[in-house]
UniProtKB/TrEMBL annotation:
It comes from Fibroporia radiculosa. This is Major facilitator superfamily (MFS) profile domain-containing protein. Pfam families: MFS_1 (PF07690). It is a multi-pass membrane protein. Keywords: Membrane, Transmembrane, Transmembrane helix. The chain crosses the membrane at residues 61-81, 101-119, 131-148, 191-212, 224-244, 296-315, 335-354, 375-394, 406-431, 467-488. GO terms for cellular component: plasma membrane. Residues 1-35 are annotated as: Disordered. The lineage of its organism: Eukaryota, Fungi, Dikarya, Basidiomycota, Agaricomycotina.
Length: 504
């Protein structure tokens, strides 16, 4: 799941002010001229973007098309994580392994997705978004081949982890591309579309995988991933342009220096004093400092991690419920995930309502509502999701029609989306000075839960039964239900005592 949704909100706000146009603007910065350090110089040669070069000034249709492509790429990355769920029987039979080991096909991929953003994020800030997309997706494609044609289980698992690591670019960076394309208030609707992609991917993966595994061969699940990846690679190299403004400015400055022979043209990235290694070190260390020393971050991260862990646990639980109790075949069991997908999609469609709600809240606070306003949606989701899980738990009896627990999963999907987006947006606004690190901590913690939960699903459901195991998960969510209400009331006081967050 993506951390880039709120990161893009941060970047969109940063670039939402009117941009000066033309090749140059006047300002003062310290620079070196002819090898000598000067305190202040005339920055007449600082480049800016012309209207035709500014991504926010491109046609609306073109910007929405690019946002859709980015959404599809993010969808494919998370789709690949759960698509492995129905290939486990094939792995056991053909690669001579145990069912417990086969579950690692999900867990190792998700673990790779969680670690990748720590490296990819800093690289994108130096080299731009497109080169990161291109390199990572080519590697994603290359390292998926051994999983589609695996010689043995060890090779398969190693390359599942590596391919998950390479897929993470569209989770950590791509939402920023949407923020590059839409400024200010424009960003909310396309961002809602983008946010759905990484969430919908895990719900759709089992549906497609089940159909393929029942009617063709489990290996074709991974071969389908290759086809999807190759189509995205073609688009990355032929259609999708660079949208990151600092990278565009740096390229323009280099072009002007070459065309004019004047070496004084420059862009802000040319004057950065930090090194790439320093950025990577900070990217890796600060998220863990937040988890260790900021209790509010730890609680919110655990809340969202629990819901994602439960979502990934359903990849093992649903076959127990629908195949074991209702006699579904593999294809029908996969289609039972449609309830979660419908819930996620329905929650996305309520975005216009929340846009108006936030605008009204902003009016009450002279245009600057406190970050805690963002948690109101999380309060709604925090109530709906456990209701859906309790409903699911107590309707898993054979005597209850199969459609009833699927309807319950709609509520779970709906509430989950609200919880995710509320947490992400709050972290961006409340921890703006370290927003990227706050989101990286959330991503790493969430995907750690998502990697671990499927590993104990079978043992838990075999020991507690479908009712007891699902009710236990619902109970854990219920225990966390007061969290958004507590932070809504106490958040301002807690932020004052945090060295990382924005003061009240």
């Amino acid at each position: 799941m993506s951390s880039s949704f709120p990161k893009a909100l941060e970047e969109a706000e940063k670039f939402s002010e009117p941009r000066s146009q033309g090749d140059v603007e006047s300002s003062s910065l310290t620079s070196k001229t002819k090898g000598e350090e000067t305190d202040v110089c005339d920055d007449t040669f600082r480049v800016t973007l012309d209207p035709s070069e500014d991504p926010t000034q491109w046609s609306v249709v073109w910007r929405w098309f690019l946002a859709f492509l980015v959404t599809f790429a993010g969808f494919c990355s998370t789709f690949a994580s759960s698509a492995a769920s129905f290939t486990e029987d094939g792995l056991v039979e053909d690669l001579h392994t145990s069912h417990e080991v086969s579950i690692l096909s999900i867990s190792l991929y998700v673990l790779g997705m969680g670690l990748g953003p720590l490296l990819v994020g800093p690289l994108s800030e130096v080299y731009g978004r497109n080169i990161i997309y291109q390199v990572s997706y080519v590697l994603f494609f290359a390292f998926t081949w051994p999983t589609a044609f695996p010689p043995d289980m060890a090779t398969f698992l190693v390359f599942r982890f590596i391919s998950g690591f390479c897929s993470s670019a569209f989770l950590s960076v791509a939402g920023g591309s949407v923020g590059d394309l839409f400024a200010g208030a424009e960003v909310a609707s396309p961002m809602a579309m983008y946010a759905l992609g990484p969430f919908l991917g895990p719900a759709m993966g089992p549906m497609i995988s089940a159909i393929i595994c029942q009617h063709i061969d489990w290996r074709w699940t991974y071969r389908l991933l290759l086809i999807m990846q190759f189509s995205i690679i073609i688009l990355l190299f032929t259609v999708i342009p660079e949208t990151y403004e600092p990278a565009l400015l740096k390229r323009k400055a280099a072009r002007l220096r070459k065309e004019t022979g004047n070496s004084e043209y420059w862009a802000p990235l040319d004057r950065q004093t930090w090194s790439l290694s320093e950025k990577i070190l900070s990217s890796c260390s600060t998220p863990f400092k937040l988890l260790l020393f900021d209790h509010m971050v730890l609680l919110l991260d655990t809340w969202s991690a629990l819901i994602l862990g439960i979502l990934y646990l359903t990849f093992e639980a649903y076959p127990i419920i629908f195949q074991g109790l209702h006699g579904f075949n593999m294809q029908d069991t996969g289609l039972s995930f449609l309830g979660i997908a419908i819930g996620l999609t329905a929650a996305t469609l309520t975005q216009p309502f929340w846009n108006r709600f936030i605008q009204k809240q902003a009016a009450k606070y002279d245009g600057k509502p406190p970050p805690e306003v963002q948690l109101i949606r999380g309060q709604v989701g925090g109530v709906i999701a456990p209701i859906g899980l309790f409903w699911l738990a107590f309707t898993t009896y054979r005597s209850v029609p199969w459609i009833v627990p699927i309807i319950a999963s709609v509520l779970f999907g709906f509430g989950s989306y609200y919880m995710f987006t509320s947490t992400f947006t709050y972290l961006v606004i409340a921890y703006r000075p370290v927003a990227a690190s706050a989101l990286a901590s959330n991503t790493a913690w969430r995907l750690t839960f998502a990697a671990i939960f499927p590993l104990f699903a079978n043992q838990m459901y075999n020991r507690l039964g479908t009712v007891g195991a699902t009710a236990l998960l619902a109970g854990l969510l219920t225990l966390m239900m007061p969290l958004p209400f507590f932070i809504y009331r106490m958040g301002a006081r807690l932020r004052k005592n945090s060295p990382y967050s924005v003061a009240s």
